[in-house]
Each structure stands twice: as C-alpha cells, then as structure tokens.
Amino acid sequence: MEEIQNSLETKIKLVAREFLEKSKDKEIQIISHFDTDGISSASIIIRALKRLDKVFSIKIIKSLEEQFICDLPKEKLFIFLDLASGSLDYIANSELKDVFIIDHHEIIQKISENVHIINPELHNKQKISSSGLTYLFCKEIDPKNKELSKIAILGMIGDILEKDISKLNNDILNDGKIKKKRGLLLYPSTRPLNRTLEFSSKPYIPGITGDVEGVKELLKEIGLTPINGKYKSLIELNNEEMEKLVTAIMLRNPKAKHDEMIGNIFLINLFNKLEDARELSAMINACSRLGETNIAIQFCMEISKVKKKAESIHAKYKQFLISGLKFVSETKKIEGKGFVIINAKNIIKDTMIGTITSILSNSPLYEDGTIITAMAYYDGKIKISSRNVGRSGKNVREILNRIIEKIGGEVGGHEFAAGGIISRNKEKEFIDSLQKSFEVELVKI
Ligand code: C5P
User: Whose Cα sits closest to atom 9 in ligand 1?
Assistant: First the structure.
C-alpha cells in the first residue's frame, strides 16, 4: 500500500535514506542496462558513489536473464538501473538480500520486501527516464550531485522522453541550466547540413537518408549552396531557410507532421564544447551497442582520451544502421493485415535490431496501428523487438508476453515498445505463434 500513498518524490527520499543505511559496510554491485539511459544512469551513480567513497563494481548488460540473477553473489548490495522491473520473480527466488531498483519499465510481478524500488509506474506514471530517477536519487544523497544533471538529460533524450517534458524532467533541465532552442529536430544541429541529412535515421527520410545524390538535390531545391565547400549547420539557418527545409522534408515523408518535426534542440556543454544533446546521446548509444560500454561510460564522464574513439565508433555504427535499413527494405518479410515480421537472422546485430525497428516504426513505410516485430540472432538465442506504429492500440509487451510465456524466454518493455529473448530452436514456433495471434485477432473483428 505504501507505493500508492507515497508520491514518487517521497519514495526517492525514502529509498535514498534506506540505501545510505544498508550500504554502510557492504560492497555494492551496480547492474545497468546497455542503452543510453542505462549508461547515463550508471555514470551518474558511479560519480555519486565515488563521492561517498564507497567500494563498488559495475556490470553493463543487454538484458537481465534468470541464470544471471541466480549466479549473483548473495552478500553484496545490488543496484539495478534501467532494468529489473520485469524480473521481480527471478529476484524473489534468488536469495539476494539487499536489492535496490531504479527503473521506469512496466511492473507486472509482486515486489518482495527486500526490494527497494523507485519506479514511476507505482506512482503517477510520470514519464521520466531511469537516468532522471538515478539523478534525483543521487541528488537526495548529496546535493553536490546536482552537477550530474546534464548526464540525466542525455538519458532522457536517449529514451525520447523530451517531447512531453514532465515536471520532474523540467526540474532536471533547470538544475543543469540546459540551453534550449526551437528548431527542426534533425541532429546534429551543430554540423554541416548535408551530412546531417544523409545520416538522418530519426526521422528516416525516404530518398534522403543514406542517399548523397538525394541530399544534394534537396539542398539545391531549397537554395542552399556550400560556402567555402561547407554547408551551414541547422542552427545557423535563418527562419526562411528553416521553413523551406521543413517543407522539402515533409514532401518526402508524408507522415511527418509539421508540429512534430519542430521542437526543442538541447545544447549541452561536454568536453568544453556546446553540442547537440541528441548527437551526444546517439554517440553513447553507438559505443555501447557496438560492445564498447567502457568508452560509453567514460564519454559520459568527460574523460577526454576516449572522445576520438567514441566519434569513430559512432561513424561505424551509422554505417551499420544504414546498411541494416537497406537490408530490411530489400528482404522478404512476413506481412499481413496490421503486422509485419522481419527475420534478420545474422545480418543485423542483435544490439541494433531494436533501433532499426524503432526507425521503421517512425518512418512512413507502415500504417499506424501496424505491429512491427524484428528478430536477430546472437549466441544460441534470438533477440526480438516489437513496436506499435503510431503508438496507439495494441500493447506489444502483452503480445510478446503471451507467446514467450508459452515457449520460454525473457520479455520486457512498455506498451508500444517491447523486447524479448528466445532460444534459437524456438524460431519457427515463435514466428508461427505470432503470425497466428494476429490472424486470430482479425477473425475476432
Ligand atoms: O530491445 P528493444 O529496444 O526492442 O526493447 C524495447 C523496450 O523494452 C526497451 O525499453 C527495453 O529496455 C525493454 N526490454 C525489457 N526487457 C527485455 C527486452 C526489452 O525491459 N528483455
């Protein structure tokens, strides 16, 4: 009942107090998710624990699997970041003693007594990233941690929670004195426009993304020419140029809505340079998804020796994204009314399949209401990502849950974006069950 009565803010205070008490003589193990939000959360807590002079170690993982939880040493104090809300049963059966969870994913299982959890799903469901929650938790522990607010903004942007800024997010922006500028939401807004357009995956612009000739044509059409061999950046455009650019993009992407294309560009000072927060967030994501989690964390912590390496990993990642999208456009898919299933097998990395599925769901390629499910191999397993195009109607976490509950595996996520893992030998069974579930639904209608 405590969960219902307390506000999220009160709960953060209580959990912070509990943490300071329980962590007095214990070694701490941080376990965080490998996306931008998880990496930002981990970077924030590392800085806060260093300030407290605590002994801790850290693990960054793609997903929390049952065996992993069973194998954890029982005597440590655990802090799970940006994950574990979907693994409460495993934790309950694991005999772990002190467990802290800071997360924002849906909760459908019972919370054991030894689990101290900060999750807005238990309160007013305010949209806030795990890094935002971790920041508020660390600020509660020591107000000096206020300096970490800019890292929380990177996580917020990583999870695309910046469009509808809730009160808590707004407080975090104010804490960091983050510069906002209204403009077209293409990033990096600080670099030459031709490159920004060519590598634009959010949004994916047909005929422009990955198409150098298409980009040249568009820029010519709106009357922009390079000055000394270099195009202006987005934040350097005047109002008229900006409007022309928006119109030209909308013509190529009929699903794009003017209001949705314009929004806040956040400029953050990192490595003593004002950068587009979306670009920084994408950089962290790229490093982590290509297996360089240490670089991602050090980048967040402004350790300058990793900057160049992070930039080159990001460039490689963008090339992978473009070739992944090309593969999807050319490959044979399983399609029916309201659904599409893409089996990328070994062609797309398991760590990139979620991003590709998100890009497709935001592109004009599929109608609102379509459920896109993509699959990619890793080890002996298959990573699954599902998205609901247009974010209305069916709950994709429930769809995946119904099937994976029967065939075995992991599921988690949100109403409109969920993921899962199954064993490789369940590939056909999964595809058949998923396809059948959509077709049965259609008969019901
Ligand atoms: O992996 P993918 O990007 O498809 O995941 C979509 C959402 O579901 C993310 O928020 C991710 O953190 C969550 N998820 C989860 N547990 C899983 C897989 C995904 O909570 N096993």
Answer: 413
